[in-house]
Amino acid sequence: MKCRQVRKAIDERLPDAADRDQRLAILAHCEVCAECRGVLEAAEITGRLIRARSLQEIEPSPFFRTRVLAAIRDRGAVAVRRQSERMWSSARAVVASMFVVVVVLLALNLFAPKPVQQIAGGEILRRDSVERIVMDERIVMDDNNTADESLTSGQVLDTVFAQGDSYGVD
Amino acid sequence: MGSKLAVEVEHASDIDLARQAGSGDELAFEEIVRRYGPRVFRIAGRFFRQRSAVEEISQEVFLRAYTQLGTYEGRGSFEGWISRIATNTCLNEIRKAKRHPEFYAADLTDDEENWLETRLAGSSLSDDYFERGIIAADLADKVLGSIAPEDRMILIMLDGEDLPVKDVCEMTGWSQSKVKIRAMRARRKVRKTVERMINSRRKPAKGQLR
């Protein structure tokens, strides 16, 4: 066996696990190779140390079960407290957002510009302008001395604007 | 009535205990702690040596197990399930500390030096004298402290407790080849540390200066 093979075998813990022939080959090599003998010696001491370490066992104390159960109860109480805190903080967030919505709605109601209305022909008129147009429609009818029901709003508007009035058209 | 309940709990299967404990039955969980306390302590003992540390981490393991009882479906053994929780809890705790101190031969105590000298001289003192004591275990901790906690656990399980590779795979969730390769590398690293330690003891005797 070559040194490389022997050291690989030692690190794979083969001297313990290998068959008799292989183990003898490793030992035979170590007899004549001082470096590999050193490696094997260090590996054996490492093995003894690890076994010594694993022999150190600690058993649970008689009070261990009580301690665990007390800790569970303790953490259970903490969990319930945290859950209620989370619930209240969520409720606070909901109330705050509702308040903001109400304030925004009030502000819109008080400060928003007056609503506009679109009529046929695509022109946008204020509500008071529309009311005046309806009155003017009657005027148009009176001035022309006709009661033509078939006049459309657009025709009425044309008539009114032809007279040179703006009537608040935007 | 109470004693009858206690007897029933004592004879209940793991899966039944897990279900009962999951629905808030303290007596059932107490039985789980009684059954698996030694197992969890043994796992924690692979990572920690101080009793207080082992107790604290074992308590944490059972608290985690209690909160995760709903995830145990009874497919694998309860022992395997709780062992994995214990291993992960210990590894996380060790990683938090982030300590992999390099080992120096000068760190040896007088007792540890004596242990090593005796070993090197091939003394016939019984293994019990040294190896059941804390000297070798202390020295082992120093030597193993220089490798990753996962590797330390693998070496203790394979080389210390002579457990099969399969058990380590179950505990870590790694493949057999990964466990074997990590074990070999860890062995080599620890072995080289021990070699340096031995050489540093021998140099003065041989009058070598390097």
Share of helix among residues of chain A? over 70%
Give the domain tally of chain B.
2
Distance between the termini of chain A: 104 Å
Q: Structural class, from secondary structure content of chain A?
A: mainly alpha
The oligomeric state is heterodimer
Count of discrete domains of chain A: 3
Mean pLDDT of chain B: 81
- State Rg of chain B: 21 Å
What composes the largest sheet of chain A?
A: 2 strands, antiparallel
Count up the helices of chain B: 11
Most extensive interface between two protein chains, with residue counts: A-B, 34 and 55 residues
**Total beta strands of chain A:** 2
Task: Categorize the overall geometry of chain A.
Answer: elongated
Low-pLDDT windows of residues of chain B:
205-210
Q: What structural class is derived from the secondary structure elements of chain B? A: mainly alpha
Tell me about the biggest sheet of chain B? Answer: none
Descriptive account of the structure:
The complex is a heterodimer of chains A (170) and B (210). Chain A is built from seven helices and two strands. With 170 residues, chain A is mainly alpha-helical. The longest helix of chain A has 48 residues. Chain B is elongated, with a radius of gyration of 21 Å. In chain B, 74% of the residues lie in helices and 0% in strands. The longest helix of chain B is centred in the C-terminal third of the chain and has 31 residues. With 210 residues, chain B is mainly α. The termini of chain B are far apart. The chains are: A mainly alpha (170), B mainly alpha (210).
